[in-house]
Please model this.
Amino acid sequence: VPNTNSTIAVALRHREAMMEKRRTAQKAWLVLLLVAGVVLVWLYMWVLYDLPLPESINAYLYGSDEYTYVDLADIPEELHWATIVVEDKDFYQHPGFSLRGIGRAVVADITREGLSEGGSTISQQLIKNTLLNQNKSFLRKFQELVLALELERRFSKNDILEMYLNTVYFG
Model:
């Protein structure tokens, strides 16, 4: 008959060692999550540092003598829908960006080995054309996405379409 006390002691030591490993693993995950959180906050702040506010579009639109601003009601409805169909068929359904468009652009960029597809919504194009530069970079695309979300939060879809139609070149 084996000594019951020594078997229990071995089992307890084994259990304690396993619990210590679990606590160590939990601490490591906690530190990893904390570091990842700090890195993400830093990256977010770096990307968004010194970005213009969506309201700055108004200065771009109304501050130019080069063209006349036209209200959406004065633009033929056929042009509204033609623009939406060609540029962003899900314009009234998405929050400023299209996951389908982004996915299509990523696949096209990978298969063509370069940044060739935009995947941009009307909101993103408006931001790019009025507030950001034309550089093709992931940083600019991320800034465009963040500003498009904010644009959609501050303006109605019809306001965004009106601003877009007043900035896009149809020539």
The first helix runs from residue 4 to 48. Residues 96 and 152 are 6 Å apart (CA to CA). The radius of gyration is 27 Å. The chain is about 65% helix and 0% strand.
